[in-house]
Predict the structure.
Amino acid sequence: MPALLAEVTRSGFVESLHHGSVVGLLPSGAVGVSVGSIEDPVLPRSCMKPFQALACLSAGAPLAGPSLAIAAGSHTGEDRHVELVLQMLGEVPVESLRCPPSWPEDEETRQRLTEPSRVRMNCSGKHAAMLAACVAQQWPAETYLEPSHPLQQQVMRTFEELSGESVVHTAIDGCGAPVYALSLHGLARAMQGLLRTPVADAMRGFPEYVGGTGHVNTVIMQQLPGVVAKGGAEGVLVLATAAGHAVAVKVLDGNPRATTAIGLTALAAMGFDVSPAKESLSAPVSGGGQVVGAVRVVF
């Protein structure tokens, strides 16, 4: 059964509760933290991106450093992100991107734009990487998002190999790409496997391309060097350390406000020092311009 993971208090009153599951793996692969239903399947959402990036790299996409990091990330649509995505596309027309037009998540950038665009969408780095893989393999680019496409089949194989599980369901993510369901435990195992790949090195080396200015994943990786952090929609988060710990979180109500605190708490429970990011172990609740409560982990 799902468990109570976090609560939101306001002026001493418990206002909201977040239920879900979290699993933490020790470097040996043994389960160090298990709360809730860790064998239930979840849709990883954007936590799939590092594995999609790895599949693109394996298919021959010329990705390294920042371009590999943005392929695995959910960028905030800043100008530096757009410039890199356009470089990744090369001679491929920007109209070939099949992610939907979107406003950038970076508020300063958004305020000076007059319309949304595909290249500003947080998944455009992943889509550019997929198109680069199609060019490298001479696969059809027009259908690169179809679940039956050779690239998407390679993504699924990559995810299954690293997780040690078979995909139990295929869905369509918000950006239009297939997303594959397996257990939360399997997602954590896949993150441990990812640590042995260039994708993890790129994410750690260029966290500003995994998220962006002020983005929580970027901030955590900057505060905890060697940690890989990637969130996904609907309350999913994965964390992994250079030492080999891995954490996967799913909050059932889909609200992400407690996921980072939950993930860091799980790492701390396995003996990993998260003190440089201690301010993210809870979040303030405001009222009248003052702090009147907190989002805090309770497992």
